[in-house]
C-alpha cells in the first residue's frame, strides 16, 4: 500500500472495517483528520456503525465524530432529494433526465452510498434538449454561479457540461451535462450507447446509467476529469460500484466491452489496478494491465497526489511535484495543445486582472476586524 | 525539568509559550478537546488569564480539533502584523491584528464546534447548573444573556456554557462547553462592578462585535467538566431599562419555536433535533423574564431553580 503509517490506518479501514480492532485512540486522532480531508469520514462511519460489535470497540470521543459525520451525510442526501424534487417539476416531462454519480446513488438508495457525502447534483440530458432544459431552469429561477463571459463560452464550446447553476438559497449546485467526457478530450464516450441502456429509477421520472456505464463514468471522472488531488474518494466509489455490480464473469466481460466502446479501456485498467492494490477490491483481469514507463509514472503520480496529506507536516517535494504533474496531465488530456495554450493564457490574463482589482478593493475592506458567524 | 503544573494559573508564561510553540496545549472544554499551537507574542499570558482554572496539559493522545494560530506571511510579519486561525489547513476567517489573537482563537473554536459537532443539537444558549439541574437561557439579541450568565456564575451557579447549549439527543442531557464568557460593550463594566475580583482578560476594542472582554470560568465550574445535567428550566431573558421584574410562563410550543429557531444546527439534524427540543421543553418549566436590575433577576432565577414560590 502507498503512503505512510497514517495512510495505512485509513486504507486498512477502507479495505476491511474490521481493522477497527487494531486501532488505538491515538491512531484515530490522525485517521479522523485524514478521513475528513478525503471526504470519507461518513463512509467509514457508516461501515463501522453497521457492525454493533465493532462500534462498541470505538472510543466514545471517536464515536461522536462518526455520528456527526453520519448526521451530516444524511442531511446532504436530503438536500439532494430536495433538489431532485425541485428539478423534476421544472424540467419538461418529455426530456429524459439521467442522474449521474452521487445523485444516482441517492435516488436509488444504494446501500454502498450510505454515509457518502454528495457534492453537487449532476444530471445529463440529450444534447439536442440541452437548450430547452437550460431555459426551463433559468425561467424557474436557477442562476449560473459565474457570469464570466469567458467561463460561459469555455463550458459551452469545450466542456461536457454547462457552468454550475444554483437556485438562490439552495444548498447544492446543479451540473447539467450532455455527455460524460469533455468534447475535446481523447477519451470520447459513446453518448448514444449511454442513453440507449439507461434504466428507470423506481417511482420517479429519473433514469440512471447501466451498471457498467456507471463504473466507466466513475473511472473517466477520476482519471480524465480531475487533477487527482486527494481523490481517494473517487477510487472508493469505484471500489463500491465494482463490489456491488460485478458478480458473474459475464458482468466483468460486459464491463470490459463497455470501457472499449467509450475508449476508456486504458483508464479502466488503471482503476482496476489501484482498486485491487489499495482497497483490496476483488478484480478480474479483463483488460490488459497497464505496463511500461507510463504505468510507473502513474504509480508515482497516484501515490503522490491521491491520498490526504498529514496536516501537521509541510507537503514534501514529491507531493508538490505530483500536484504540478497531475495538473499538466489533466490539461493535456482535456485539450489539444493549441487550444490549451489559448485557454491557459486567457485564464492567466484574467486572473492577473482580477488580482489587480482585488488589491484595490481589499485596501478598502482591510479596516474591519473580521468576518461572520458564531459569536463568542 | 520541573514538575508539570496542574493548572494554567500555576504555569509560567514561558512554559505556556514553549508548549504552544512545540506540541501544543490540549484544552478540555467538556464536550470537546482542542489542541492549540500558536506563534503569537502575548497570547500565552492572555490564555493564562482566561483559562487559569483549566488543567494544564501539554501532552495528549486525542483532540477533537487541532488548531493553529500563526503569524501572517511575508511582509505581514513586520508591517501591521496579523494572526491567522487554521484547522487542518482550513482558514475560516480573515486574519486579525496580532493583538487580537484571543478573540480570534475563541471565535475559531466556536466555528469548529458549530460546524463539526452535529451529533448534538447545538442551541444558541447559555447553560448553568444548580443542585444538579440545568438552566437553559436561549440567546436573543439584546437579551443580556452573557451578562446574566456571567453574574449567575459569579453568584454560585455552575457555568456549563455561554454560547452553545449542547443538547444530547440520546438522553436529553446538557453537556458543558465551558469557555470564557465573551462580554461585550457595556456588560464589561456591569460585571466589573458586580464582582470587582472576577478574573477577566484584557478589553479588545473595536472588534466586529464592538469591545470584548473575556470572563474566566471559575474553578468550581471547571471541576465539573465531565458532568452533564438534565434540564429543569428554560428561561428567555429580556433586559429593559427601568422595567419592573416580571415573569411570564411560556407555552411549550412557544418555547419550542424560540429554542429551535435559535439553534446552530436544528435544520441539519432533521427529526432528531425536533424530538430533542420537544423533550427539552416538555421536561422543563419555561418562562420569559423581563428585568432591569441584575440582583432582582438573580434572586428570581435562584428561586425558580430551587422550586420556591416566586
From TrEMBL, chain B:
One of its GO terms (molecular function) is kinase activity. This is HprK-related kinase A. It comes from the Bacteria. Keywords: Kinase, Transferase. It comes from Parazoarcus communis SWub3 = DSM 12120. Signal peptide: none annotated.
Amino acid at each position: 500500500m502507498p503512503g505512510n503509517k497514517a495512510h495505512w490506518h485509513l486504507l486498512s479501514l477502507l479495505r476491511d472495517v474490521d481493522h477497527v480492532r487494531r486501532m488505538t485512540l491515538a491512531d484515530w486522532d490522525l485517521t479522523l483528520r485524514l478521513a475528513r480531508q478525503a471526504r470519507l469520514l461518513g463512509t467509514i462511519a457508516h461501515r463501522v456503525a453497521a457492525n454493533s460489535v465493532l462500534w462498541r470497540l470505538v472510543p466514545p470521543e471517536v464515536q461522536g465524530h462518526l455520528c456527526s459525520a453520519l448526521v451530516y451525510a444524511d442531511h446532504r442526501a436530503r438536500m439532494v432529494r430536495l433538489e431532485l424534487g425541485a428539478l423534476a417539476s421544472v424540467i419538461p416531462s418529455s426530456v429524459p433526465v439521467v442522474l449521474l454519480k452521487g445523485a444516482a446513488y441517492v435516488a436509488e438508495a444504494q446501500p454502498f452510498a450510505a454515509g457518502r457525502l454528495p457534492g453537487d447534483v449532476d444530471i445529463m440530458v440529450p444534447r439536442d434538449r440541452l437548450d430547452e432544459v437550460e431555459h426551463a431552469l433559468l425561467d424557474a429561477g436557477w442562476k449560473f454561479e459565474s457570469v464570466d463571459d469567458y467561463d460561459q463560452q469555455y463550458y459551452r464550446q469545450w466542456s461536457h457540461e454547462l457552468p454550475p447553476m444554483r437556485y438562490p438559497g439552495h444548498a447544492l449546485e446543479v451540473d447539467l451535462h450532455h455527455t460524460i467526457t469533455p468534447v475535446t478530450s481523447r477519451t470520447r464516450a459513446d453518448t448514444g450507447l449511454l442513453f440507449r441502456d439507461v434504466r428507470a429509477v423506481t417511482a420517479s421520472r429519473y433514469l440512471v446509467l447501466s451498471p457498467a456505464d456507471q463504473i466507466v463514468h466513475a473511472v473517466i471522472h477520476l482519471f480524465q476529469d480531475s487533477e487527482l488531488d486527494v481523490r481517494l474518494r473517487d477510487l472508493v466509489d469505484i471500489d463500491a460500484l465494482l463490489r456491488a455490480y460485478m458478480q458473474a464473469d459475464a458482468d466483468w466481460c460486459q464491463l470490459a466491452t463497455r470501457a472499449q466502446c467509450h475508449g476508456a479501456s486504458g483508464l479502466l485498467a488503471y482503476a482496476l489496478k489501484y482498486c485491487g492494490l489499495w482497497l483490496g477490491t476483488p478484480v478480474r483481469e479483463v483488460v490488459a494491465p497497464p505496463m511500461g514507463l507510463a504505468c510507473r509514472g502513474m504509480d508515482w503520480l497516484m501515490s503522490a497526489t491521491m491520498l490526504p496529506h498529514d496536516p501537521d507536516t509541510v507537503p514534501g517535494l514529491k507531493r508538490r511535484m505530483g500536484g504540478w504533474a497531475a495538473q499538466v496531465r489533466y490539461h493535456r488530456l482535456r485539450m489539444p495543445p493549441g487550444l490549451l495554450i489559448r485557454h491557459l493564457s486567457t485564464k492567466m490574463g484574467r486572473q492577473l486582472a482580477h488580482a489587480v482589482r482585488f488589491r484595490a478593493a481589499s485596501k478598502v475592506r482591510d479596516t474591519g476586524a473580521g468576518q461572520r458567524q458564531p459569536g463568542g | 525539568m520541573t514538575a508539570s503544573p496542574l493548572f494554567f494559573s500555576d504555569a509560567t508564561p514561558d512554559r505556556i509559550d514553549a508548549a504552544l510553540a512545540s506540541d501544543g496545549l490540549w484544552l478540555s472544554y467538556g464536550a470537546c478537546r482542542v489542541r492549540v499551537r500558536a506563534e503569537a507574542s502575548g497570547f500565552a499570558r492572555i490564555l493564562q488569564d482566561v483559562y487559569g482554572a483549566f488543567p494544564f496539559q501539554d501532552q495528549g493522545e486525542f483532540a477533537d480539533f487541532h488548531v493553529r494560530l500563526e503569524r501572517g506571511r511575508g511582509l505581514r510579519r513586520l508591517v501591521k502584523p496579523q494572526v491567522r486561525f487554521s484547522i487542518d489547513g482550513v482558514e475560516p476567517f480573515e486574519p486579525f491584528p496580532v493583538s487580537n489573537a484571543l478573540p480570534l482563537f475563541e471565535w475559531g473554536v466556536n466555528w469548529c464546534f458549530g460546524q463539526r459537532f452535529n451529533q448534538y443539537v447545538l442551541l444558541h444558549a447559555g447553560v448553568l447548573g444548580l443542585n444538579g439541574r440545568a438552566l437553559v437561557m436561549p440567546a436573543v439579541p439584546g437579551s443580556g444573556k452573557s451578562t446574566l450568565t456571567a453574574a449567575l456564575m459569579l453568584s454560585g451557579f455552575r457555568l456549563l456554557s455561554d454560547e452553545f447549549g449542547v443538547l444530547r439527543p440520546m438522553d436529553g442531557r446538557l453537556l458543558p462547553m465551558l469557555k470564557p464568557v465573551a462580554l461585550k460593550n457595556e456588560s464589561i463594566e456591569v460585571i466589573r462592578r458586580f464582582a470587582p475580583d472576577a478574573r477577566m482578560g484584557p478589553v479588545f476594542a473595536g472588534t466586529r462585535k464592538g469591545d470584548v472582554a473575556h470572563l474566566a470560568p471559575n474553578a468550581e465550574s471547571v471541576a465539573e467538566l465531565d458532568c452533564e445535567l438534565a434540564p429543569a428550566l428554560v428561561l428567555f431573558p429580556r433586559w429593559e431599562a427601568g422595567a419592573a421584574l416580571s415573569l411570564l410562563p411560556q407555552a411549550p410550543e412557544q418555547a419550542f419555536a424560540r429554542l429551535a429557531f435559535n439553534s446552530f444546527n436544528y435544520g441539519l439534524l432533521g427529526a432528531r433535533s425536533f424530538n430533542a427540543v420537544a423533550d427539552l421543553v416538555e421536561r422543563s418549566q419555561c418562562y420569559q423574564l423581563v428585568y432591569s436590575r441584575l440582583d432582582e433577576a438573580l434572586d428570581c432565577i435562584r428561586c425558580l431553580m430551587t422550586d420556591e414560590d416566586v
